[in-house]
Every structure is written in structure tokens, then in C-alpha cells.
Amino acid sequence: MEYLRFQIWTCRLRGLDGVIDLFKLDKFEKLSEIPLNTRVLELRDKVQDSHFEVHTDGSKVDGGVGFSVCILHGEIQHKIICKKLEPQNTVFQDELAALGEAVDWAIENKKKINIYTDSRSSIETLKSYGTRSKFVISIKNKFCLAEGLVGLAWVKARVRIPGSELSNHFSKLASVEGEGMYIPFPYSFVKFTLKKKLLEV
């Protein structure tokens, strides 16, 4: 973090202030200020008597970033949600945003759902005690609010599961023509941009 601050200071010194809008970056919370039930999030693989099966996926295609949430009732497509993020966002953020969107839908409609994702890293991050990212914590809070409504399980990528193939297809479409959605940029974007700009000076 100190090195990152030094790079930002160097950019300002060299007249590059304004290259990065710091207000668009993800923030970090103090662990002591995060509620215990959010830090120690209990995720169930499956809820009984679910109303819908939900498959989520995120894609980055030619610089476009998007995700899909495919809500199925049996084999019938009940609802498809497609959102497009900024090119500065990562696929990891994309996958988490998709999970958050699915949980929002369950809460809003008061329906039990089982979510399936091929992003193991997303599940591990949600279960992590030490996560401080404000964006990740916002997703964890949604799962807390949806207690008893949502199950979350990992499925292997590139396995011929109809729901997974459907979400993969629509996530690619979302990266091009999905409805716009804003989430904060990761710090990896800052490091990449600063390094690029410093080399140009």
C-alpha cells in the first residue's frame, strides 16, 4: 500500500494527477468494524425445497466485461439478467457481482434459490474471515440478508451442464450489450495504469 501511495505521489509530481479517479477505487474496511456474522459467513451448498435453480457466469471478451444470471424453473428459462461492467473491472469482480445480483433477486421475490457458479475463488473469498474489500463485504452482506433463501455451490467449468452453458453464453453477450452497472475498480487496475503512465513519461 505504501508503494502504491508513492507511485500516485510520483504521478502527481510529474503532472499526471487526474489520470486515476481515486473515488472510483474499491475501499478497505477495518476488520474491527465489520459485523462478526459478515466476517464469518456461513454458506450452504443447497437449500431444500428451492423454487429456482440459478446459474451465474462472468466473461471478459475483447476488453468488455459482463455477467449473466440465468434463473431456471426446471428446464424453463424464467429470467435472464445481463449486466455490463467497466473494462477496468476484473472477471473476479464480475463473478462476485453476478452472485450478488442473484441474491438480490431471491430477496426481492422472496424465493428460495440454489446458485451454481464455476468461480471457486468467489466462494472462497466469501468464506474468508479476513476479507476487507468494501465491494466483497457488500456481497457478503447480501448473503446475510438472504439467510435461508440461498444455497451456493461450485460446478466445474467446461462441463456440459445446460444451465452453465446458458450462463456462459449470456455472459459473453453481456460483455458487449448488457445493461450498464457500476462497481468500484480494483487496485490491480491502479498498479497497471500507474506503471504504464510512468513508463510513458
Question: What's the topology here?
Answer:
Elements: H1 2-13, H2 36-39, E1 52-61, E2 64-73, E3 76-85, H3 91-109, E4 113-117, H4 120-127, H5 134-145, E5 150-154, H6 162-177, E6 179-180, H7 187-200
Parallel strand pairs: 1-4, 3-6, 4-5
Antiparallel strand pairs: 1-2, 2-3
Please give a structural write-up:
This is RNase H type-1 domain-containing protein. Residues 52-132 form the RNase H type-1 domain. InterPro entries: RNaseH-like_sf, RNaseH_domain, RNaseH_sf. GO terms for molecular function: nucleic acid binding; RNA-DNA hybrid ribonuclease activity. It comes from Araneus ventricosus. Strand 1 (52-61) and strand 2 form a beta hairpin. The longest helix has 19 residues, at 91-109. The chain has 201 residues and is of the alpha/beta class. It folds into 2 domains: 1-25 and 185-200; 28-183, Ribonuclease H-like superfamily/Ribonuclease H (Nucleotidyltransferase, domain 5). The mean pLDDT is 87. Strands 5-4-1-2-3-6 form a 6-stranded mixed sheet. Helix 3 (91-109) runs parallel beside helix 5. It is built from 7 helices and 6 strands, in the order ααβββαβααβαβα.
In short:
This protein has 201 residues and is an alpha/beta fold.
Q: Uncertain regions: pLDDT < 50 for 5+ in a row? A: none
Would you count the extended β strands for me?
6
Q: What is the general shape?
A: globular
Order of helices and strands: HHEEEHEHHEHEH
What share of residues are in beta strands? 15-25%
Helix content: 40-55%
